[in-house]
Design a protein that fits this description.
AAA+_ATPase; 6-stranded mixed beta sheet; cell membrane; binds adenosine-5'-triphosphate; 252 residues; ABC transporter ATP-binding protein; membrane; alpha/beta; P-loop_NTPase
Length: 252
């Protein structure tokens, strides 16, 4: 059984079919990237996986449960966490406080007036671990809004990780970043994938990130699957070169 099974999903917006009969399997521990030219349907497809859009037809099965009709927060409860193209953090709070909020949500402590001393200690420990893993310890007490774009994205990724997901969905993690920040973000994603054996699905425009990180890649064009394969298979695919990389080269 794959961790994520997408069966023949279609998403219509009125007359337009943004995603047409797309299927995808993501295995436990896999890092699967979704690429494609502008307007290919990547974001729409991603929104169906995370529950922001309900497919017009087709089914989505996560960890053995049919989640097609579940809203995003119920999918989070089953172990799916996502980040957004535009970083979603509380910019006026410190990195530590952002992470604390995420950890407390997971521990279901936000609604309780008092945490016991051992609960508070466990929260502190988890926050420290997340800071360490995300390379954020030195900036722990700074407001997130003051940090570099890359560190803000790391904070957001670590907030998603605080939810202890089985599947992490990353929507263009390198969007709007310079080369060094893109590299740092890719290193963090690789670390989470390799050391924590996290299953990751990511949509990304930056080909360096994709080809360095992905175990397998799905290429979408005009709402349909053009090709699925390893980075080497995708790089060698003539269809992909014409539809996507060819377009990139011309535009470069
Ligand atoms: N909410 C919506 N209502 C109507 N049309 C939409 C909606 N969202 C997306 N579309 C259309 O669906 C198609 C696919 O869009 P989508 O954003 O999924 O592509 P994408 O591959 O993510 O593109 P990009 O790389 O530019 O972000 C486009 O033609 C887009 O205009």
């Amino acid at each position: 059984m794959s961790l994520l099974e997408v069966h023949d999903v279609t998403q219509r917006f009125g007359e337009l079919a943004a995603v047409k009969h797309v299927s995808l399997n993501v295995e436990d521990g896999e890092l699967h990237a979704i690429i494609g030219p502008n307007g290919a349907g990547k974001t729409t497809f991603f929104n169906m996986i995370s529950g922001f859009y309900k497919p017009t037809s087709g089914r989505i099965v996560f960890n053995g449960s049919d989640v097609t009709d579940l809203p995003p927060h119920d999918r989070v409860g089953l172990g799916m966490a996502r980040t957004f193209q535009i970083t979603e953090v509380f910019p006026e709070l410190s990195v530590r406080d952002n992470l604390r909020i995420a950890v407390e949500i997971t521990q279901d402590l936000r609604m309780k007036l008092f945490a016991t001393r051992s609960q508070a200690a466990r929260t502190d420990e988890q926050v420290d671990e997340l800071l360490e893993t995300g390379g954020l310890t030195a900036n722990a007490d700074r407001h997130v809004g003051e940090l570099s774009h890359g560190d803000q994205r790391s904070t957001e990724i670590m907030m998603a990780l605080a939810l202890k997901p089985k599947l992490l969905l990353l929507d263009e993690p390198a969007a709007g970043m310079g080369s060094q920040e893109t590299y740092d973000t890719a290193v963090l994603i690789r670390k989470l994938h390799r050391t924590q054996k996290l299953t990751i699905v990511l949509v990304e425009h930056d080909m360096r990130v994709i080809f360095n990180l992905a175990d397998r890649i799905t290429v979408l064009t005009e709402g349909e699957v053009l090709e699925v394969g390893t980075p080497a298979e995708i790089a060698a695919s003539e269809k992909v070169q014409v539809a996507y990389l060819g377009e990139k080269r011309e535009g470069a």
